[in-house]
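Worked example 2:
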Amino acid sequence: MRVVQKKSLGQNFLIDQKIIKQIVDIENINNQVSVIEVGPGNGSLTKKILEKKPKDFSVVEKDERLCKLLNEKFGNEIKIINDDMLNISYDLILKKNSIIFGNLPYNISTQILTKWIKIKNLNKFCKKLILMFQKEVADRIVANSDSKNYGRLSIISNWKMDIEKVLDIGPNSFNPSPKVKSTLLTFVPKKKFYEIKDPKNLEHITNIFFSQRRKMIKKPMKFLFKNFDEVSKELSIDLNLRPQNLDYLTYYKICKIYEESIY
């Protein structure tokens, strides 16, 4: 069975066997590890994962045609979940020491990552996420303060994750070839992270700051806090700075004070 890729679903199948081997070899997958692959496509990476003999293996695929193809190729060796990866309740299918692999559709990759970050007690179930993004998005995820790529995605991603860049991948490693480079990142859920009551508050705060990233931070601070002067002094924040000048931790502290003011 041959399946033609759908542009609407952002389908670019990884075909480079050398890259596929590198991805599978990042983490030891054995009979003690549960694996989830999102966006398996035509099953090139799926096949290599199966060769490692994980404890159990589920794939999440929205395209019904690809689900039929995967069933033809692998049968009962994998559990196929035919659903949109944005709609899945991952906390219900994650098991202890789970590893998530994903060649994420570029158009929804940040939404999927944010969804995983919001899972309560993620570190108790998920050992590692091995994910591929458009390079431009990956650069934003790993960016540090005082850099042009630093922003909302950097702050939210690094809140509960230790992130490492593995390698950049050229367009020719895919079929069809995308117009941009891709980047492979690994994410290890932190056991200890800054306590925030509701991740939506962190999203709200970073949105307010970075909607005008070239402006001084006095305006968003004034918008968030009636006593913005006191808050800025408490956190030793210079109100003449720009949003990209504040590091991750400062934003988490701002979020905590904001939550104390609204609850």
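Strands lie at 13-14, 34-38, 56-60, 79-81, 98-103, 126-134, 161-169, 174-175, 182-189. The mean pLDDT is 93.
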